[in-house]
Write a structure and sequence with these properties.
It contains eleven helices and no strands. It has 278 residues and is mostly helical. It starts with 13 loop residues before the first helix and ends in a 9-residue tail after the last helix.
């Protein structure tokens, strides 16, 4: 779905930021290579033996960076310089001239990259595993991918996509819950039907009182139904249609609610419910 037109914190000002970063990297490269070239020059202006080792190591680092970023034209020039340094067939002044060419190629290729910045208070959403806790990952492995994608979308400011993945994660957890209480179709995507099935299960427990702790089961399943009803009415239905869009505040609220719901299933229901209970 198309995101709302309001500014998004995760993507705001990226053009200016990327330009500043390229200028910073250019200045940093200028200073770094000036130092390294000076260290590599002998008193008579030739390349020293120690200098060859210094430059070979630095050029190797630059090669790896170019490969990682897909900067093919810069990589070609850097590889030619490194080959000449390794074979000792280039002079100090020759390296200086060729590094100017490397810098020009590097700036040109970087200008064609799209650079995304993640605010510091969002980086954990992008990098940290098991965002909902290890217990949720262990109990609901089918939800892991969508939880990770929801977290990454939140970090990148894709609020509506974040909510969409959260709903998918909840459906996978709900399907696992349905298998536990012997209602296999509970996670088929129809949340109203799921609520009806859970209500039917609660009614049967209340009428038959099958175990000594039947009240605990009623409390657990009623809490699941309450979480599910809130999510269904407030969040899921709009996110599945074009008209539904979310900003950071609403996405964060939904994220926290979804995490609480999955943790409730993992800790309060799965930890305390056994096959004989259902």
């Amino acid at each position: 779905p198309r995101e709302a037109s309001r500014p998004r914190r995760g993507l705001r000002g990226l053009t200016n930021w990327a330009t500043d970063l390229r200028h910073y990297n250019q200045q940093r490269m200028d200073k770094t290579w000036l130092v390294r070239l000076e260290l590599a020059r002998d008193d008579d202006g030739s390349l020293s033996d120690d200098g060859i080792g210094i430059l070979a190591g630095a050029l190797g680092e630059l090669q790896r960076d170019c490969q990682r970023l897909g900067l093919g034209l810069t990589l070609d020039e850097v590889s030619r310089i490194k080959e000449a340094v390794d074979s000792k067939t280039i002079t100090w002044s020759g390296i200086s001239r060729q590094m100017t060419e490397v810098q020009s190629r590097l700036i040109d290729e970087l200008s064609r990259l799209v650079i995304l910045a993640i605010p510091s208070d969002h980086t954990n959403f992008y990098n940290k595993p098991n965002q909902f806790g290890e217990q949720v990952s262990e109990r609901f492995p089918d939800s892991i991918w969508d939880i990770e994608e929801a977290s990454k979308c939140f970090a990148l400011g894709r609020w509506t996509a974040c909510v969409f993945h959260l709903m998918r994660a909840i459906e996978a957890g709900l399907a696992r819950f349905g298998a536990l209480i012997e209602i296999p179709d509970i996670g088929n995507g129809n949340w109203q039907e799921a609520l009806s099935l859970i209500a039917g299960k609660i009614n049967r427990i209340e009428s038959t009182k099958p175990t000594a702790d039947w009240r605990r089961q009623v409390e657990q399943y009623s809490a699941v139904a309450a979480h599910l009803r809130d999510i269904k009415n407030a969040w899921r239905n709009p996110s599945m249609h074009v008209r539904g869009t979310y900003d950071e505040e609403r996405a964060r609220d939904i994220y926290n609610a979804a995490r609480a719901f999955m943790r409730h299933l993992a800790s309060d229901v799965f930890q305390k419910t056994t096959p004989k209970d259902v």
